Protein backbone atom coordinates (compact mmCIF):
# COMPACT_ATOMS: atom_id res chain seq x y z
CA UNK A 1 0.00 0.00 0.00
CA UNK A 2 1.13 3.53 -0.64
CA UNK A 3 0.43 6.79 1.10
CA UNK A 4 0.94 10.38 0.12
CA UNK A 5 3.52 12.65 1.71
CA UNK A 6 0.96 15.10 3.15
CA UNK A 7 -0.97 12.20 4.70
CA UNK A 8 2.21 10.87 6.30
CA UNK A 9 2.94 14.30 7.74
CA UNK A 10 -0.57 14.56 9.16
CA UNK A 11 -0.23 11.11 10.72
CA UNK A 12 3.06 12.04 12.42
CA UNK A 13 1.53 15.26 13.74
CA UNK A 14 -1.48 13.37 15.11
CA UNK A 15 0.77 10.78 16.76
CA UNK A 16 2.91 13.47 18.37
CA UNK A 17 -0.15 15.30 19.66
CA UNK A 18 -1.61 12.07 21.03
CA UNK A 19 1.66 11.17 22.79
CA UNK A 20 1.69 14.54 24.56
CA UNK A 21 -1.76 13.98 26.10
CA UNK A 22 -2.34 11.89 29.23
CA UNK A 23 -3.90 8.47 28.56
CA UNK A 24 -7.69 8.38 28.51
CA UNK A 25 -9.85 5.71 30.07
CA UNK A 26 -11.78 3.39 27.77
CA UNK A 27 -15.39 2.38 28.30
CA UNK A 28 -13.96 -1.10 28.93
CA UNK A 29 -13.01 -0.47 32.54
CA UNK A 30 -13.81 -3.36 34.87
CA UNK A 31 -13.85 -2.03 38.44
CA UNK A 32 -12.55 -5.27 39.97
CA UNK A 33 -10.04 -5.86 37.15
CA UNK A 34 -6.39 -6.48 37.99
CA UNK A 35 -4.48 -5.44 34.86
CA UNK A 36 -4.44 -2.31 32.72
CA UNK A 37 -3.73 -2.59 29.01
CA UNK A 38 -2.70 0.51 27.11
CA UNK A 39 -3.04 0.77 23.32
CA UNK A 40 -2.19 4.05 21.63
CA UNK A 41 -3.39 6.64 24.13
CA UNK A 42 -6.21 4.56 25.62
CA UNK A 43 -6.19 2.42 28.76
CA UNK A 44 -8.39 -0.61 29.50
CA UNK A 45 -8.84 -2.20 32.92
CA UNK A 46 -9.49 -5.90 32.63
CA UNK A 47 -9.14 -9.36 34.14
CA UNK A 48 -5.66 -10.84 33.91
CA UNK A 49 -6.98 -14.38 34.44
CA UNK A 50 -9.61 -14.13 31.69
CA UNK A 51 -7.01 -12.99 29.18
CA UNK A 52 -4.57 -15.72 30.20
CA UNK A 53 -7.27 -18.39 30.02
CA UNK A 54 -8.15 -17.63 26.39
CA UNK A 55 -4.73 -16.53 25.09
CA UNK A 56 -1.46 -18.44 25.33
CA UNK A 57 0.33 -15.24 24.37
CA UNK A 58 -1.12 -13.22 27.25
CA UNK A 59 -0.50 -16.17 29.57
CA UNK A 60 3.19 -16.03 28.66
CA UNK A 61 3.29 -12.25 29.09
CA UNK A 62 1.76 -12.44 32.55
CA UNK A 63 4.02 -15.32 33.60
CA UNK A 64 7.08 -13.06 33.45
CA UNK A 65 7.64 -11.33 36.82
CA UNK A 66 7.17 -7.59 36.48
CA UNK A 67 9.02 -4.98 38.57
CA UNK A 68 6.89 -2.65 40.64
CA UNK A 69 5.37 -0.12 38.29
CA UNK A 70 5.44 3.48 39.60
CA UNK A 71 2.90 4.39 36.93
CA UNK A 72 0.42 1.73 38.08
CA UNK A 73 -3.22 2.70 37.71
CA UNK A 74 -5.50 1.91 40.67
CA UNK A 75 -2.86 -0.55 41.85
CA UNK A 76 -2.76 -2.37 38.50
CA UNK A 77 0.38 -2.75 36.41
CA UNK A 78 0.22 -1.36 32.89
CA UNK A 79 0.93 -3.58 29.88
CA UNK A 80 1.61 -1.58 26.73
CA UNK A 81 0.34 -3.07 23.48
CA UNK A 82 1.32 -2.09 19.95
CA UNK A 83 -2.22 -2.69 18.65
CA UNK A 84 -4.80 -0.03 17.85
CA UNK A 85 -7.16 0.98 20.62
CA UNK A 86 -10.09 -0.03 18.40
CA UNK A 87 -8.75 -3.59 18.03
CA UNK A 88 -8.07 -3.97 21.76
CA UNK A 89 -11.52 -2.64 22.64
CA UNK A 90 -13.21 -5.12 20.32
CA UNK A 91 -11.19 -8.04 21.71
CA UNK A 92 -11.97 -7.20 25.33
CA UNK A 93 -15.65 -6.54 24.76
CA UNK A 94 -15.94 -9.83 22.88
CA UNK A 95 -14.28 -11.73 25.73
CA UNK A 96 -16.62 -10.12 28.25
CA UNK A 97 -19.83 -10.64 26.29
CA UNK A 98 -19.37 -13.08 23.39
CA UNK A 99 -23.10 -13.77 23.17
CA UNK A 100 -23.79 -10.12 22.44
CA UNK A 101 -21.89 -10.48 19.19
CA UNK A 102 -24.33 -12.88 17.55
CA UNK A 103 -25.62 -10.20 15.18
CA UNK A 104 -23.88 -9.52 11.88
CA UNK A 105 -20.48 -7.94 12.54
CA UNK A 106 -19.19 -5.06 10.47
CA UNK A 107 -16.12 -5.55 8.30
CA UNK A 108 -14.15 -3.42 10.77
CA UNK A 109 -15.11 -5.86 13.55
CA UNK A 110 -14.13 -8.82 11.38
CA UNK A 111 -10.73 -7.26 10.73
CA UNK A 112 -10.22 -6.57 14.44
CA UNK A 113 -11.14 -10.16 15.29
CA UNK A 114 -8.75 -11.52 12.67
CA UNK A 115 -5.85 -9.40 13.87
CA UNK A 116 -6.33 -9.97 17.59
CA UNK A 117 -7.37 -13.61 17.35
CA UNK A 118 -4.34 -14.37 15.18
CA UNK A 119 -1.76 -12.32 17.08
CA UNK A 120 -2.75 -13.38 20.59
CA UNK A 121 -3.97 -16.90 19.68
CA UNK A 122 -7.43 -16.34 21.18
CA UNK A 123 -9.13 -19.54 20.05
CA UNK A 124 -12.85 -18.69 20.54
CA UNK A 125 -12.48 -15.26 18.93
CA UNK A 126 -10.57 -16.72 15.99
CA UNK A 127 -12.99 -19.60 15.44
CA UNK A 128 -15.98 -17.27 15.61
CA UNK A 129 -14.71 -14.91 12.93
CA UNK A 130 -13.48 -17.71 10.66
CA UNK A 131 -16.89 -19.41 10.81
CA UNK A 132 -18.58 -16.14 9.87
CA UNK A 133 -16.25 -15.73 6.89
CA UNK A 134 -16.91 -19.30 5.76
CA UNK A 135 -20.65 -18.63 5.85
CA UNK A 136 -20.25 -15.47 3.80
CA UNK A 137 -17.75 -17.01 1.37
CA UNK A 138 -18.73 -20.71 1.07
CA UNK A 139 -16.25 -23.48 0.38
CA UNK A 140 -18.71 -25.82 -1.39
CA UNK A 141 -20.97 -25.39 -4.41
CA UNK A 142 -24.03 -26.44 -2.38
CA UNK A 143 -23.07 -23.85 0.24
CA UNK A 144 -22.93 -21.23 -2.49
CA UNK A 145 -26.32 -22.28 -3.85
CA UNK A 146 -27.88 -22.23 -0.37
CA UNK A 147 -26.79 -18.68 0.36
CA UNK A 148 -29.40 -15.97 0.49
CA UNK A 149 -29.60 -14.00 -2.73
CA UNK A 150 -28.61 -10.76 -1.04
CA UNK A 151 -24.86 -10.34 -0.68
CA UNK A 152 -23.85 -9.64 2.92
CA UNK A 153 -26.09 -12.15 4.70
CA UNK A 154 -23.47 -12.89 7.36
CA UNK A 155 -21.25 -9.80 7.46
CA UNK A 156 -22.44 -6.19 7.38
CA UNK A 157 -20.82 -4.28 4.53
CA UNK A 158 -21.19 -0.59 5.30
CA UNK A 159 -19.70 0.80 2.08
CA UNK A 160 -18.42 -0.35 -1.30
CA UNK A 161 -14.76 -0.44 -0.18
CA UNK A 162 -15.47 -2.91 2.64
CA UNK A 163 -15.10 -6.04 0.53
CA UNK A 164 -11.72 -4.77 -0.71
CA UNK A 165 -10.55 -4.42 2.90
CA UNK A 166 -11.01 -8.16 3.44
CA UNK A 167 -8.82 -9.37 0.57
CA UNK A 168 -5.34 -8.75 1.97
CA UNK A 169 -6.45 -9.42 5.55
CA UNK A 170 -7.74 -12.90 4.71
CA UNK A 171 -4.58 -13.74 2.78
CA UNK A 172 -2.30 -12.49 5.56
CA UNK A 173 -4.32 -14.47 8.12
CA UNK A 174 -3.71 -17.67 6.14
CA UNK A 175 -7.37 -18.39 5.37
CA UNK A 176 -6.83 -20.03 2.00
CA UNK A 177 -10.26 -21.67 1.83
CA UNK A 178 -11.98 -18.28 2.05
CA UNK A 179 -9.98 -16.75 -0.79
CA UNK A 180 -11.55 -18.29 -3.96
CA UNK A 181 -15.10 -17.14 -3.23
CA UNK A 182 -13.96 -13.83 -1.74
CA UNK A 183 -11.94 -13.09 -4.87
CA UNK A 184 -14.85 -14.17 -7.07
CA UNK A 185 -17.18 -11.83 -5.17
CA UNK A 186 -14.73 -8.96 -5.54
CA UNK A 187 -14.40 -9.26 -9.32
CA UNK A 188 -18.20 -9.33 -9.54
CA UNK A 189 -18.74 -6.36 -7.22
CA UNK A 190 -15.97 -4.12 -8.52
CA UNK A 191 -15.38 -2.51 -11.92
CA UNK A 192 -12.01 -3.02 -13.58
CA UNK A 193 -10.75 0.46 -12.68
CA UNK A 194 -11.37 -0.29 -8.99
CA UNK A 195 -9.39 -3.53 -9.24
CA UNK A 196 -6.58 -1.55 -10.89
CA UNK A 197 -6.48 1.26 -8.30
CA UNK A 198 -7.39 -0.86 -5.27
CA UNK A 199 -10.02 1.60 -4.05
CA UNK A 200 -13.37 2.94 -5.25
CA UNK A 201 -12.68 6.67 -4.82
CA UNK A 202 -9.19 7.49 -6.12
CA UNK A 203 -9.14 10.75 -4.17
CA UNK A 204 -10.15 11.90 -0.71
CA UNK A 205 -12.65 14.77 -0.30
CA UNK A 206 -9.73 17.15 0.20
CA UNK A 207 -8.29 16.12 -3.19
CA UNK A 208 -5.43 13.98 -1.91
CA UNK A 209 -4.93 10.48 -3.39
CA UNK A 210 -6.74 7.70 -1.50
CA UNK A 211 -4.70 4.90 0.04
CA UNK A 212 -5.45 1.63 -1.82
CA UNK A 213 -7.14 -1.14 0.16
CA UNK A 214 -5.67 -3.78 -2.15
CA UNK A 215 -1.96 -4.51 -2.23
CA UNK A 216 -0.24 -4.67 -5.60
CA UNK A 217 0.01 -8.47 -5.66
CA UNK A 218 -3.67 -8.82 -4.79
CA UNK A 219 -4.62 -6.44 -7.58
CA UNK A 220 -2.60 -8.46 -10.07
CA UNK A 221 -4.23 -11.69 -8.85
CA UNK A 222 -7.74 -10.26 -9.19
CA UNK A 223 -7.20 -8.74 -12.63
CA UNK A 224 -5.63 -11.93 -13.92
CA UNK A 225 -8.42 -14.00 -12.37
CA UNK A 226 -11.07 -11.80 -13.92
CA UNK A 227 -9.69 -12.36 -17.40
CA UNK A 228 -9.69 -16.13 -16.81
CA UNK A 229 -13.24 -16.10 -15.45
CA UNK A 230 -14.56 -14.27 -18.51
CA UNK A 231 -12.76 -16.76 -20.76
CA UNK A 232 -14.20 -19.73 -18.88
CA UNK A 233 -17.69 -18.26 -19.10
CA UNK A 234 -17.36 -17.97 -22.86
CA UNK A 235 -16.25 -21.58 -23.29
CA UNK A 236 -18.82 -23.03 -20.90
CA UNK A 237 -21.71 -21.09 -22.43
CA UNK A 238 -20.97 -22.66 -25.81
CA UNK A 239 -20.54 -26.08 -24.21
CA UNK A 240 -23.86 -26.46 -22.42
CA UNK A 241 -25.98 -24.66 -25.02
CA UNK A 242 -24.52 -26.90 -27.75
CA UNK A 243 -25.39 -30.13 -25.95
CA UNK A 244 -27.45 -31.95 -28.59
CA UNK A 245 -29.09 -35.21 -27.60
CA UNK A 246 -28.69 -38.43 -29.57
CA UNK A 247 -32.39 -39.00 -28.98
CA UNK A 248 -33.49 -35.63 -30.42
CA UNK A 249 -36.90 -35.79 -32.10
CA UNK A 250 -36.68 -32.44 -33.94
CA UNK A 251 -33.04 -31.72 -34.76
CA UNK A 252 -33.66 -28.63 -36.89
CA UNK A 253 -35.85 -26.83 -34.34
CA UNK A 254 -33.76 -27.83 -31.34
CA UNK A 255 -30.59 -26.62 -33.08
CA UNK A 256 -32.25 -23.27 -33.85
CA UNK A 257 -33.42 -22.86 -30.25
CA UNK A 258 -29.97 -23.66 -28.84
CA UNK A 259 -28.31 -21.12 -31.15
CA UNK A 260 -30.85 -18.46 -30.15
CA UNK A 261 -30.21 -19.28 -26.51
CA UNK A 262 -26.46 -18.78 -26.95
CA UNK A 263 -27.03 -15.30 -28.33
CA UNK A 264 -29.63 -14.41 -25.71
CA UNK A 265 -27.51 -15.59 -22.79
CA UNK A 266 -24.42 -13.79 -24.02
CA UNK A 267 -26.35 -10.56 -24.59
CA UNK A 268 -28.05 -10.87 -21.20
CA UNK A 269 -24.72 -11.38 -19.47
CA UNK A 270 -23.28 -8.12 -20.77
CA UNK A 271 -26.24 -5.81 -20.07
CA UNK A 272 -25.01 -3.28 -17.53
CA UNK A 273 -25.62 0.22 -16.28
CA UNK A 274 -24.30 3.15 -18.23
CA UNK A 275 -21.55 3.73 -15.66
CA UNK A 276 -19.81 0.38 -16.30
CA UNK A 277 -17.71 -1.09 -19.11
CA UNK A 278 -19.66 -3.31 -21.52
CA UNK A 279 -18.50 -6.72 -20.26
CA UNK A 280 -18.64 -5.78 -16.58
CA UNK A 281 -21.26 -8.26 -15.37
CA UNK A 282 -20.33 -11.19 -17.55
CA UNK A 283 -18.74 -13.04 -14.64
CA UNK A 284 -22.01 -13.08 -12.72
CA UNK A 285 -23.18 -16.00 -14.88
CA UNK A 286 -20.22 -18.28 -14.12
CA UNK A 287 -21.69 -19.70 -10.89
CA UNK A 288 -25.46 -19.79 -10.43
CA UNK A 289 -28.29 -22.25 -10.38
CA UNK A 290 -30.07 -22.52 -13.68
CA UNK A 291 -32.42 -19.50 -13.76
CA UNK A 292 -36.13 -20.27 -14.05
CA UNK A 293 -36.38 -18.42 -17.37
CA UNK A 294 -33.76 -20.74 -18.89
CA UNK A 295 -35.32 -23.86 -17.40
CA UNK A 296 -38.74 -22.84 -18.74
CA UNK A 297 -37.28 -22.15 -22.17
CA UNK A 298 -35.56 -25.53 -22.29
CA UNK A 299 -38.71 -27.39 -21.30
CA UNK A 300 -40.99 -25.41 -23.58
CA UNK A 301 -38.97 -25.07 -26.79
CA UNK A 302 -36.69 -28.14 -26.89
CA UNK A 303 -37.73 -31.72 -27.25
CA UNK A 304 -37.71 -33.72 -23.99
CA UNK A 305 -34.44 -35.46 -24.83
CA UNK A 306 -32.56 -32.25 -25.68
CA UNK A 307 -34.01 -30.40 -22.66
CA UNK A 308 -32.77 -33.14 -20.35
CA UNK A 309 -29.35 -33.23 -22.05
CA UNK A 310 -28.94 -29.43 -21.84
CA UNK A 311 -29.94 -29.43 -18.16
CA UNK A 312 -27.39 -32.10 -17.30
CA UNK A 313 -24.72 -30.26 -19.29
CA UNK A 314 -25.49 -27.02 -17.43
CA UNK A 315 -25.13 -28.71 -14.04
CA UNK A 316 -21.91 -30.40 -15.14
CA UNK A 317 -20.39 -27.09 -16.23
CA UNK A 318 -21.37 -25.54 -12.92
CA UNK A 319 -19.49 -28.24 -11.03
CA UNK A 320 -16.52 -27.90 -13.37
CA UNK A 321 -16.49 -24.13 -12.86
CA UNK A 322 -16.60 -24.56 -9.09
CA UNK A 323 -13.78 -27.10 -9.10
CA UNK A 324 -11.67 -24.78 -11.26
CA UNK A 325 -12.41 -21.60 -9.29
CA UNK A 326 -9.27 -21.62 -7.05
CA UNK A 327 -6.98 -22.18 -10.04
CA UNK A 328 -8.42 -19.10 -11.77
CA UNK A 329 -6.81 -17.05 -8.99
CA UNK A 330 -3.54 -18.98 -8.90
CA UNK A 331 -4.54 -21.03 -5.84
CA UNK A 332 -4.22 -24.81 -5.22
CA UNK A 333 -7.19 -27.15 -5.73
CA UNK A 334 -9.98 -27.00 -3.16
CA UNK A 335 -8.75 -30.19 -1.47
CA UNK A 336 -5.29 -28.70 -0.99
CA UNK A 337 -6.40 -25.36 0.47
CA UNK A 338 -5.76 -24.99 4.20
CA UNK A 339 -6.96 -22.50 6.79
CA UNK A 340 -4.58 -21.33 9.51
CA UNK A 341 -5.63 -22.38 12.99
CA UNK A 342 -4.56 -20.89 16.33
CA UNK A 343 -4.98 -24.19 18.17
Question: What does this molecule look like?
Answer:
- The chain is mainly alpha-helical.
- Among the domains are: 1-83, Potassium Channel Kv1.1, Chain A; 229-336, no CATH class.
- The protein contains 14 helices and 4 strands.
- It has helices at 5-20, 48-54, 56-63, 85-96, 107-119, 123-136, 141-146, 162-172, 179-189, 192-197, 216-241, 251-269, 292-301, 304-328; strands at 24-29, 35-39, 42-46, 78-81.
- A 4-stranded mixed β-sheet has the order 1-3-2-4.
- β2 (35-39) and β3 form a beta hairpin.
- α4 packs across α5, α9 packs across α11 and α11 (216-241) runs antiparallel to α14 (304-328).
- The longest helix is centred in the middle third of the chain and has 26 residues, at 216-241.
- It is elongated and about 90 Å long.
- InterPro entries: BTB/POZ_dom, SKP1/BTB/POZ_sf.
- Residues 33-95 form the BTB domain.
- This is BTB domain-containing protein.
Amino acid sequence: MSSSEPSAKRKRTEDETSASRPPMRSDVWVEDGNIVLQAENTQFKFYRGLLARHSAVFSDIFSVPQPEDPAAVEGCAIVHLSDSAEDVRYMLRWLLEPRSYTLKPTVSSVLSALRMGHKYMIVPLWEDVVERLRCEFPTTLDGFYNQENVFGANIHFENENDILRLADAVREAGLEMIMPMLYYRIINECPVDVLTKGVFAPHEPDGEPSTPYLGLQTRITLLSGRIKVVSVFNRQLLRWTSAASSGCTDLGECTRVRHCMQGDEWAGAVIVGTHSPVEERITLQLLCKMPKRIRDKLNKELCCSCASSAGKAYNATQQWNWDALPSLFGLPDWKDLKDYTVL
